[in-house]
Protein 1
Amino acid sequence: MDSKALLVCDQCDLLLREVQLEPGGKALCSRCGNVLYRCQPDGLRLSLIFSLTAAALFLISNAFPIVTIDSQGLTNSTTLLDAAERLFDDGIPSIAALVFATTFLMPALEIMAMIYLLLPLHFEKLPPGFSVAFRLIHFVKPWAMIEVFMLGLLVTISKLSALASVVPNIALGSFILLMFSVTAAAANFDRRGYWERVDGIKKLQGQLC
Ligand SMILES: [Zn+2]
């Protein structure tokens, strides 16, 4: 059944009319095939679950060492923040700031903003300033590079293992799970469904006033 709402494909600017979808279905642009929106009845709940999981994994990932390196009797364990601090102490503050921003600050902001948006909604409440949180996610997402960090880390570990004994610690596994949790939270975040829920709560609040 056609609704009256119109939308624009963000890839080719074609003006289209929204249609209702079956659960699990997706709407494609008739010209370029771009996915316009999906019908994910449980998308917001799953996104909240993965975001909360990501928050717990983020704490574990940064509280414990990533690897322990043992070379000629010298043992060294380091966390992500220790590594950024070491870069700063070694006189390369720009790299230290980049590592801190892309692997700690931006992922933390993204996870917190997701929880800020989704947790109140789960209890039928609207978070104050939720449009700011939306913009914040849009801003920080391109700068959150846990995947790039993990790729570089795994390459470094494989090269270092030829020179020293490298023992993976709990934070390494936690970072890998964190990477999947953040991706799953974003993949299940149904923007269209979110705004529909916001409209529904606003109407309910309006009726109650
Ligand atoms: Zn299109």
Protein 2
Amino acid sequence: MSDISHLKPETAQLLLLSDGERIEKIRSDRWIGYPVAQRILRKLEDLLVYPRKSRMPSMLIVGESNNGKTSLVTRFCNKHPAEDNPEGEGIIAPVLYIQSPPVPDEARLYNTLLDSVFATYKANDRVDRKQFQVVKILRYVGLKVLVIDEIHSILAGPINKQRAFLNVLKYLSNELQISIVAAGTKDAFRAMQTEPQIANRFEPAELPRWTLDENFLRLLVSFEHMLPLQLPSKLHSKSLSARLFTMCEGNIGELSRVLSDASVEAIVSKQEYITPKILDSIGWVTPSQRKRRLDTGAR
Ligand SMILES: Nc1ncnc2c1ncn2[C@@H]1O[C@H](COP(=O)(O)OP(=O)(O)OP(=O)(O)O)[C@@H](O)[C@H]1O
Ligand SMILES: [Mg+2]
């Protein structure tokens, strides 16, 4: 076998698979612990061991679409899965993940929470009964951190409903003495800033767009370590890194897709490493080009 020092040992193992299986691996989720994400993860871990008190710290993870919010909170949740309760019925769940309901609706939030712990409930029960059930069950499962992804969904409702929804979150946090970790776009951040009692409980943590710097080059090296290609591509080289940066426009989701598409092409073409020519051949359309096409198409 050729030199495989461009791969992590676990990735090198994948070279033994068939081309089809390697392609499947390339298309699967990966996790790279880049510095900003690691810093936020450490903060989330701190929340988990924070002593319970009447006013618990909460966090809002802010970032544009496709820039790693869900991957980050999922990473945290997977580290702390629910387990069977050895001393009673049901589960112990220090961390729970839900997606915000698509509109700021208290009853739907309760339904989602009850579903997340597999509780049975009457869909048309009164909202105060559901709230009582939610508080009782979440206390019973020992919840410590509630993760609510896609919190910007609340913007799909009128201001008074948004406000009421945020107040429910504050109520749950106070009543259960839990931290809430919300993830959403800048618009959600702005909406939450307008409510002082929410703003001062939710510490913002940003997943910013990437810039073409040392950190981006390190990210490329990490991707290369994890993509099972037989030969080194040197993604961090000056020309390839600049090219990849232009293609992804500083967005990790876009970068991940470019590199997946290019890696698949590298396998199919038997080249076994990513070249500028391969990047030309994948028919990549940058996010801004996509948006421009949509805008002109809409006219
Ligand atoms: N830490 C990471 N390591 C490797 N790949 C990542 C990482 N974070 C994100 N990605 C890639 O970026 C893609 C988009 O990430 P993710 O779904 O977490 O974004 P998001 O911010 O939640 O987007 P949206 O706002 O649209 O829900 C993922 O499918 C994954 O391929
Ligand atoms: Mg997401």
